[in-house]
Amino acid sequence: MSEVSGGIDYAALFDATPTPLSVLDRDFVFVEANQAYLEITGRARGELIGRHLFDVFPVNPDDPDADGPRNLLASFRRVLETGKPDTMVLQRYDIPRPGAEGGYEERYWSPVNTPLLGEDGSVLLIVNRVEDATAYVRDSLAHPTSLTGTGDGLRAVGGKVAEAELYARARELYEHNERLRQAHAREHEVALTLQKAMLPTHMPLERRNAAVRYRPAQGSLNVCGDWYDMINLSEDRFAVAVGDVVGRGLEAASVMGQLRSALSAAMRVADGPAQALYGLDLYARSLDGALATTAVKLDIDTHTHTLTYSSAGHLPPMLCHPDGYTELLDQATDVPLAARSRPSHRPQAITTYVPGSTLILYTDGLVERREESIDVGLKRLSESLARHRDLGPEEIADNLLEDLGMNRGTADDAALVVIKL
């Protein structure tokens, strides 16, 4: 920490902060601690910096079953895994008495662990904020006159509120939160399994010099209503599609899986993209949650160097020529699926490309931002694609995500397919 151009000494500011704070690296080694933290733990700065937290504050050997240290470690790991703050309920965590006295002192803490993220979104450091609740547990509730309620309320023992009762209630809350976390983890595992089952394998991608990226919305279960698909039609022809179901989460992912499967089948038998989307429109009308889904499909002929495409309300694919000129394939755009009172045939267009061109398909989460027109996002995408057009598809995909801010998380799902033609 150091002084910056604005004249603020951030090291002094950190040290003067009245809230006890320590900073740990990813291995839970102390990097820094402020004066308030040193005071409540009774430690000098030199006793902490460069040492592992659980070496400085080991488990009380007289209470080997204590779960405070174990719970704190679990919280640190959640911060590393999620990149999000983790607030803990009241914890009993005894610490060694400073000096030569020896033994352990019973202490109660209320911790909050917050990540410090790097530019790539990874956790660099953990800020451990603690409040010493020992005095509160022992003294603040010593007189029950300020408490109301009986029966299920806090019990008074000998004129004092039992510490064990207060701690037991905190433990009940903690255990309830743990059950919620476990349930969320199971749901997340189911979601990932569902996602893996519904999205295609990478075999066609490798053969066709293509790359895909899939970014669920920040805070979601890692599944969403966006999808992509690519299939080989013959030696010289293959088809690619991208779609977007309204909504997110498991319900949208379920609808997405059914529509993707239906379109994948139609892509194999339909005479062109327009006919495939017409068949998908018929199917979408019988599927709850499919209304207003958007999709775009292209047939790519590597022998004639042609792209045949049709869009059901989806953002237009983008074609970048070797010279950097970028165009939107927007000559065959129609309404989203099931949007009309009765199905009708879809438009279809064809264009040529020069070998070495780059084609991308994407969903609105890549370019749409709440505070700006979507045209701004499309221009940003076009400029990024032109700038990185000479790279391979994997590198192009990574750079597009970085340039459009996707690596920092977004409020919407996004799918991206990059094909080097």
Task: List its traits.
single chain, 421 residues, alpha+beta, 6-stranded antiparallel β-sheet, 11 helices, 33% helix, 25% strand
Shape: elongated
Helical residues, percent = 25-40%
Low-pLDDT segments, ≥5 res: 143-161
- Note the gap between the termini: 50 Å
Structural class: alpha+beta
Q: Which whole number gives the mean pLDDT?
A: 83
Work out the strand percent: 25-35%
The count of helical stretches stands at: 11
Biggest sheet architecture? 6 strands, antiparallel
Q: Which value, in Å, is the CA radius of gyration?
A: 29 Å
Topology, number of strands:
21
Structure characterization notes:
With 421 residues, this protein is an alpha+beta fold. Helix content is 33%, strand content 25%. The chain is built from eleven helices and 21 strands. It has helices at 10-16, 35-41, 53-56, 68-82, 134-140, 163-198, 203-207, 249-269, 273-284, 374-387, 393-403, and strands spanning 21-25, 30-33, 86-87, 91-92, 95-96, 104-105, 108-117, 123-132, 156-157, 160-161, 210-215, 224-232, 237-248, 294-301, 306-312, 318-320, 326-328, 333-334, 349-352, 358-362, 414-420. The strands form five sheets. Strands 1, 2, 3, 4, 7 and 8 form a six-stranded antiparallel sheet that branches. Strands 12, 13, 14, 15, 18 and 19 form a six-stranded mixed sheet that branches. Strands 11-21-20-16-17 form a five-stranded antiparallel sheet. The radius of gyration is 29 Å and the shape is elongated. The model is unreliable at 143-161 (pLDDT under 50).
